[in-house]
Structures are given as C-alpha cells and as structure tokens.
C-alpha cells in the first residue's frame, strides 16, 4: 500500500532553490536556514573577535593607553555575550539544521517555519545588543555573567536593552532546540533506531534537552535583574531580604548546563570525524551515548563550583567539588574512545582530522585545568584570575570553535559541492594551532601568579607574558581570515566533490549528491 | 514498511516568521526604551515602538494561524506532522515549567537561606550583628532588614476560591475534550464555555486580590522579597492564565465554526494541555506562596 498524503500541494514544491532575497527571508528549507545560521555565527565570531583584539591591544602593555576602563569593561562583556550566544551556539544550531535531517533521513526539520523564525530573531537581538554600545553611558559593562549588584545597582541605562535582547535570544534558542529535539524524536527514517543514530545527532538531542531546560532559567534571571533595577524589587538586595549570591545560584544553574550546550555537539562532530579519517568504526558507540547523557545529567549538579569563594557552607562546597570531579569520568570515557578509535587505524591527516585531533588534545588540557579549578581549596587561589580565562578559552576556542572548524571542513564539500583548498586549510590549521597556544597557554602562568581577570591594567611583572599573549591573539584573529577566504573560494568554485569525498566516512549524509539537493529524503530511506 | 510512509508536509516559504522576528525585535527594543524612559521620567518614543511591535506580532499570529488552520482544514497534515506539533507543544510547556522554576527557586532560596542567614542562622551570627542587628528572620517577611513593612496575604478567602475555580476549570476543560473526542458537540461547547467563564472569573478575582493587597495590606511589588516573589509568581501566572483564556476563546470560536474532528484537533489539545499546566502551576503557587 502506498498512500501519499499531501501530494496535491506539490506543484509548488521546487527542487531547486528559489532566487532573490525573499529566498532567505521566507525560507523554510533546513539547508538555507543552516547556511544563514553559519554565516551569522561567523560574522558574530569576527565581531566578537575584534572586541577581543581591543582587549588584547589594551593589555599589550601595563598602564592605560588605548581605551577607558569603562569601555574595556564593555568590551569584555560584549565579547563574552557575542561569542557565547552569537558565535558558538548559532554555529551549532546551523550545523544541526544542515546535518541532522540529512543524518537521520528526514525531509526537513520537523517545524520548518518556526525554524526560520528562530533564526531571524538573532540578527535583531544582536543589533539591539550592539546598538546599546553606542548609547549615552555605554553598553553593558558588568561581564557576560552580569552578576548583581553590578548589573542592578551599578549598571548603566542600557541594561534594559541588554535584558530584552537576551530575552529574545532565549526565545530563539528554545524554539531552535524544540525543533531539533522534535526532529530527532519524530522524523527518523524507518529503521533509524535511537542506538543507530550518528553521535552528532545524539549529542544534539541531549544538548537540545539542556537548552529547553535552562534557557528559561536565564530568562528568569534577566527578568529579576530588570525588576531589581527598574521596578524596586530586591531579589538580589539583602536590605529587602534577597541576596546577591542568589543571583549567582540562578545564573549558574543556567550557566553550567550552558557550557555543556557549547561542548556536547563538539563531541558529536569529533566522533564523526575521527572514525572517518582513521577508517575504523567509532570505538565504544554505546558508552559514548551514555557518557554524553551522564555529562548532561551531572551538569545540573555542579553549578556552584563557579562560586566557591562566595562563602557557601562547607558541605555545599564539598558536594559541588565532588560532583564536578565526577564529570571527568564520562569525559575520560570519551577521550579514551577517541584515542582507541585511532588505535591501529589507517589514519590520514586532512584538515578536518587535524582540527579534530587538536580538539582532543587541547580540549583535554582545558579539561585538566577544569579539574584543578574543581578542587575547592585551590580554587580559592585561582578564582577570578587569568587561570580561569585560560581554562575556559581552552575548552571554548580550541575546543568548541576548533570542532566547528573541523565540522565546516568535513561537510563543506557536501554543502558547496566543491572540495575546499586543502593547502589553505592546512595553513589555517597550523596558524590557528600555534597562535591559539601562544594566546592561551601563557595565561595559565599569569593566572597562577595572581593576575586578576577583567582589569585593563596590571602589575609590571606580568608585562612580558601579556605581550606574548597579545601577539598570539592578533595572530589567531588574522588566521581566521584565511578561513573566510577559503570558504568564499570553496563556495565560488573548486574541484567537484563526489557524493562521498572522504573514503572512511559513514552516514546517510554521504548517500546524497554534493552539493546536497535542495530537497533530500522526501521519501525516507530504509536504514538497515 | 517503507511504503506505508506518508509524505511529511514541508511548507513552502512563508513570510510570517520574518514578520514575527521583526515584531519581537521591535518589542525588545521598544520595551527596553520604555523601561529606560520611565526610570528617568522622560517622555519618549519607546512605548510607540513597543506598541508597534505588539501590533506586528498580533498581525503575524493572525496570519500565521490563518494559514495553519487553512492547511489543516484542507487535510494537508499527516499523522507524523501532528506528532511533531504535539511533541513541540510538550517541550514548550516543559520550558515554561523551567521558567516558573527559576522564580520558585528564588522563593525557596530567599525563604530557606537568605532570610535565615540575615537573621543569623548557621554561622552567620555576625552577618546579623554587623548588618541589621534589629532584624530577626520570619516568613512571610513582613518587615525587611531595611525596614520596609507590609501586610501578609492569607490563603483563606479569595486565594482559596481561586484555587477551587481553577481546579474545577481543569475538569470542565477535560469534559469539553471528552465531548470533542466522542463527537458530542453540545457537550464540547457547553463545557468549553464554562471553562472560559471560570478563567475570566479567576482573572477578575486575582485583580480584586491585587487591589486589596495594594490598598489594604500595603503589600506591593517593592515591599521586599516576600512581595517580590508574591507578585512575580502570581503575576507571571496571571499572564499565562490570560493567554490560556485567549486561546480557549479562539478554540471556542473555532468550535462554533465547526472545526476539529476526533482525529484532527491538535490546537484544541494544545490549549487544553496549556490550561492544565497553568492549573498545576497555580496549585504549586497556592501551596508554596499562600499556605506555607
């Protein structure tokens, strides 16, 4: 029996893309929306990166030379907000949009119109946030974590704009996450059981759950900041019976799952790339799934490790310390599995693999410094120093961003139909790899020596290392222009890519042509 | 197996999402400026932008749902698509639960930890001694450490009536749903109508309660953490009841036009889930905000 419902509206079901600007404004196509997300995130990456350049330029020498301290604070704040909400998260959502339907054999995302809505909110949200920098009194300057009372009693006028722009970013993320989770639950091709899904799909499934669970808590936190600042409430004011520390609890209840939101999809990407270039199936698939779920579960029990120095009861400090250290077990499982996948593999080192390998090593370094920070008594020394900055940039830049780069190289042939320039790719990789370590590794040392973060000036003894760090920063920033050039080149032309450009790659996405046709899997494939 | 697969309806391009994005952008920008202008006591254009945004969103909702209903009525939707909608709605309600969880969390933290510590509990004797030695912990916090005094909202009377009304409305909503599934249109219309009336009564009584709290009890939004959590929780709940009532009214109008069948009534089901959800939130509110 072959019943095909909805055939009558297929007269307008074009198999090639419509043209003009309305294609992008009105689109319901997961590939178009994926591309929009990816380009948006890259633009935000450059915008947030320029702010980092301002920070590094100011810190090139001790003393105040380039910018006012207040402007410096705005730069650290908006750099963080843009990189977290504007660069990393949209990049992952873009990858999910492009790849999840292709990987599970679905014709599109489950809710295609909402998909477009969730993308188009983002440019408005970030336009509002960036515009607030030009207001009288400047933009948000309280750090991306907007701790009360910095964001309530002591913040500028622009705080209301910050709050509402975070609100609509949150709406966008929640709708995006609902779309991904429903797509995965409901749109898998026949035979694509949960335990056959590629790990990228699994990790995004769990990420989407985390997003839906914690983005509303962020909305609650910004709402309380808004009412505390403008409507006389005292959630975070002890005089009214509230507590500024309560802000940190609410924020980090969102914030810690949020950092896993920014790393779990990376795990999925690396788990696709390492087997492909080792020409071996992934070692320990099931344990990877369980480890991801365990990390996600634990992420709700560790938030207070960000606030060991706030004066919590000793029992709470111990509880959060042990829970945090526990996370290294499933994470260790993952790293072990990646290495075991490569063991005796027939490895080749194309650019995606290079980035994936760098991810494994550098993310592990970031994980180890995280383990150091997890130990309460030592955290008292490291707290709010450059050691923390080094830690989370290792996991977010050489972790999350490197994995996004790896994903881009891995799937660019599928997206554009052309092979990228392998030489340029290697240039991009080696420049990035060297500069990222020159940029972030020495930060560990100044941090351990006591240099505080988020301060535009520093003691003279930190000058040499800060100069090295700044040089690494400028080099890393410039290296990303190679990537921009490479992508433009690849979109415009190049060697024709076959349907499956990587001989070891597996998955449904390689069964469709390169570039992937505008509509794929309108009739679901049968997965065995 | 493979052949039994229905085609999934992937809609052609639609202008509504971008209209919605423009609307949300205007709302965020306008609301931000309105708040800033109010705090400085100046007259500005913020509220105009906000109003424009709300109008754009209303226009978008109207247009989007019109397209949606037309597509649904002409039978373009498959079972699989209905499942997507149902799952999407469930996850949306889950996100709403987490939004309320943030405010319940604030309530519990303030009550169990913050206020107690300010009163000197645990090893915080010096906190009390140094900051506000006069202050002793109590809940409801009718006198803040800073000295703001307010009345206390009891649970008996209006809040209890409202609880009963909302619980009954959850049942009437369910009866309406059963009527729909059994094809008994009169039962559906009557129970749905009663649900709407109960929702409106709830909102009216909530308004009466707020007036009473402000005028007689001196319990205001800015009277310390007790008033903060009281108004933020009941206020956001009230906004959700308002939205739920509007959804119910739209369902009522659609029922009167003969929409919905036994197999095809996702919109009704989603509305009914939403209504049960606001009911459960209220029960939690009644227990933790009013009684305890």
Automatic annotation (TrEMBL), chain A:
For this chain, one GO molecular function annotation is:
cytochrome-c oxidase activity
**Which key words tag this protein in UniProt?**
Cell membrane, Copper, Electron transport, Heme, Iron, Membrane, Metal-binding, Respiratory chain, Translocase, Transmembrane, Transmembrane helix, Transport
Q: Which domain of life is it from?
A: Bacteria
SUPFAM superfamilies listed in its UniProt record: Cytochrome c oxidase subunit I-like
Transmembrane segment boundaries: 36-57, 77-98, 119-142, 162-187, 199-226, 259-277, 289-308, 314-333, 354-375, 387-412, 424-445, 465-488
> Which GO BP terms, alphabetically?
electron transport coupled proton transport; oxidative phosphorylation; respiratory electron transport chain
Q: What class of enzyme is it?
A: translocase
Q: What EC number(s) would the UniProt record show?
A: 7.1.1.9
* Pathway entry: Energy metabolism; oxidative phosphorylation
Provide the protein's localization. Answer: Cell membrane; Membrane
Task: Explain the purpose of this protein.
Answer: Cytochrome c oxidase is the component of the respiratory chain that catalyzes the reduction of oxygen to water. Subunits 1-3 form the functional core of the enzyme complex. CO I is the catalytic subunit of the enzyme. Electrons originating in cytochrome c are transferred via the copper A center of subunit 2 and heme A of subunit 1 to the bimetallic center formed by heme A3 and copper B.
Can you name this protein? Cytochrome c oxidase subunit 1
Name its species: Pseudidiomarina aestuarii
Automatic annotation (TrEMBL), chain B:
Per the UniProt entry, the Enzyme Commission number(s) are 7.1.1.9
Whether Translocase counts among this entry's keywords is yes
Q: GO annotations under biological process? A: aerobic electron transport chain
Q: Name one GO cellular component term.
A: plasma membrane
Q: What is the lineage of its organism?
A: Bacteria, Pseudomonadati, Pseudomonadota, Gammaproteobacteria, Alteromonadales
UniProt protein name:
cytochrome-c oxidase
Say which family it is in.
Belongs to the cytochrome c oxidase subunit 3 family.
In this protein, which residues make up the domain named Heme-copper oxidase subunit III family profile? 4-292
Which keywords has UniProt assigned to this entry? Answer: Membrane, Translocase, Transmembrane, Transmembrane helix
Q: Where in the cell is it found?
A: Cell membrane; Membrane
Q: Name one GO molecular function term.
A: cytochrome-c oxidase activity
Instruction: Report the transmembrane regions from the record.
Output: 16-36, 48-67, 88-110, 160-178, 190-210, 230-253, 273-291
- One matching Pfam family is COX3
Q: What class of enzyme is it?
A: translocase
Q: How does it sit in the membrane?
A: Multi-pass membrane protein
Q: Which InterPro entries match?
A: Cyt_c/ubiquinol_Oxase_su3 (IPR024791), Cyt_c_oxase_su3_dom (IPR033945), Cyt_c_oxidase-like_su3 (IPR000298), Cyt_c_oxidase_su3-like_sf (IPR035973), Cyt_c_oxidase_su3_a-hlx (IPR013833)
């Amino acid at each position: 029996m072959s019943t095909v419902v909805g055939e009558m509206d297929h007269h307008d079901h074009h198999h090639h893309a419509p043209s003009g600007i309305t294609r992008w404004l009105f689109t319901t196509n997961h590939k178009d929306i994926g591309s929009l997300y990816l380009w948006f995130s890259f633009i935000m990456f450059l915008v947030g990166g320029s702010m980092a350049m301002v920070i590094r330029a100011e810190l090139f020498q001790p003393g105040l030379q380039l910018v006012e301290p207040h402007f410096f604070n705005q730069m650290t704040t908006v750099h963080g907000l843009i990189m977290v909400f504007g660069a990393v998260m949209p990049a992952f959502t873009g990858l999910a949009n492009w790849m999840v339907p292709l990987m599970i054999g679905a014709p599109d995302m489950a809710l295609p119109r909402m998909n477009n809505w969730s993308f188009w909110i983002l440019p408005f949200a970030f336009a509002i946030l960036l515009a607030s920098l030009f207001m009288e009194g400047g933009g948000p300057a309280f750090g991306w974590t907007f701790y009360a009372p910095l964001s309530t009693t002591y913040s500028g006028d622009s705080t209301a704009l910050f709050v509402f722009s975070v609100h609509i970013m949150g709406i966008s993320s929640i709708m995006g996450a609902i779309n991904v989770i429903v797509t995965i639950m409901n749109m898998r091709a026949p035979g694509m059981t949960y335990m056959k899904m590629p790990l990228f799909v699994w990790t995004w499934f769990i990420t989407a759950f985390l997003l839906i669970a914690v983005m509303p808590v962020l909305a609650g936190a910004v709402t309380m900041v808004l009412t505390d600042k403008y409507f006389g409430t005292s959630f975070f004011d002890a005089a009214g019976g509230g507590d500024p520390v309560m802000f940190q609890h609410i924020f980090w209840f969102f914030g810690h799952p949020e950092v896993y939101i920014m790393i779990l999809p990376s795990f999925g990407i690396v788990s696709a790339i390492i087997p492909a270039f080792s020409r071996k199936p992934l070692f320990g698939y099931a344990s990877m799934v369980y480890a991801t779920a365990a990390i996600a579960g634990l992420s709700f029990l560790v938030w207070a490790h960000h606030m060991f120095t706030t004066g919590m009861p000793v029992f709470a400090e111990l509880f959060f310390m042990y829970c945090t250290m526990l996370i290294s077990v499933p994470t260790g499982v993952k790293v072990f599995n990646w290495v075991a996948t490569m063991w005796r593999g027939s490895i080749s080192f194309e650019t995606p693999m290079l980035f994936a390998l760098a991810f494994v090593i550098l993310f592990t370094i970031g994980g180890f410094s995280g383990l150091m920070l997890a130990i309460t008594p030592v955290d008292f020394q490291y707290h709010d120093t450059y050691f923390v900055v080094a830690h989370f940039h290792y996991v977010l830049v050489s972790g999350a961003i490197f994995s996004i780069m790896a994903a881009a190289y891995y799937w660019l042939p599928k997206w554009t139909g052309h092979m990228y320039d392998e030489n340029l790719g290697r240039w991009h990789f080696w420049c990035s790899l060297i500069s990222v370590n020159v940029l972030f590794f020495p930060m560990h040392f100044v941090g351990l020596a006591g240099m505080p973060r988020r301060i535009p000036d520093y003691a003279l003894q930190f000058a040499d290392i800060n100069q090295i760090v700044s040089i690494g920063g400028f080099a890393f920033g410039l290296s990303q222009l190679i990537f921009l050039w490479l992508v433009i080149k690849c979109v415009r032309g190049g060697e024709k890519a076959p349907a499956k450009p990587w001989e070891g790659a597996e998955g449904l996405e390689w069964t469709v042509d390169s570039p992937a046709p505008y509509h794929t899997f309108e009739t679901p494939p049968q997965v065995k | 197996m493979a052949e039994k697969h229905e085609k999934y309806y992937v809609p052609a391009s639609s202008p509504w999402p971008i209209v919605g994005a423009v609307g949300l952008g205007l709302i965020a920008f306008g609301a931000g400026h309105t708040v800033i202008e109010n705090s400085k006591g100046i007259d500005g254009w913020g509220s105009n932008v906000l109003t424009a945004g709300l109008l754009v969103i209303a226009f978008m909702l109207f247009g989007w749902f019109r397209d949606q209903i037309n597509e649904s009525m002409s039978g373009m939707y498959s079972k699989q698509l209905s499942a997507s909608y149902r799952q999407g709605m469930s996850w949306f309600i889950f996100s709403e639960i987490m939004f309320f969880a943030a405010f319940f969390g604030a309530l519990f933290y303030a009550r169990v930890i913050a206020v107690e510590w300010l009163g000197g509990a645990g090893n915080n004797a010096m906190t009390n001694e140094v900051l506000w030695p006069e202050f002793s912990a109590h809940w409801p916090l009718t006198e803040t450490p800073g000295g703001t005094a307010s009345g206390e909202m009891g649970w008996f009377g209006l809040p209890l009536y409202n609880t009963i009304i909302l619980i009954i409305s959850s049942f009437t909503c369910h009866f309406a749903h059963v009527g729909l599934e059994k094809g008994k249109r009169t039962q559906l219309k009557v129970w749905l109508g009663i649900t709407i009336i109960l929702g409106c009564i709830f909102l009216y009584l909530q308004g009466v309660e707020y007036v009473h709290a402000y005028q007689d009890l001196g319990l205001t939004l800015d009277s310390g953490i007790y008033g903060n959590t009281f108004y933020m929780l009941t206020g956001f709940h009230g906004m959700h009841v308002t939205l739920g009532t509007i959804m119910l009214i739209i369902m009522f109008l659609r029922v009167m036009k003969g929409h919905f069948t036994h197999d095809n009534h996702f919109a009704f089901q989603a509305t009914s889930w939403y209504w049960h959800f606001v009911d459960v939130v209220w029960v939690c509110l009644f227990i933790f905000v009013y009684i305890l």
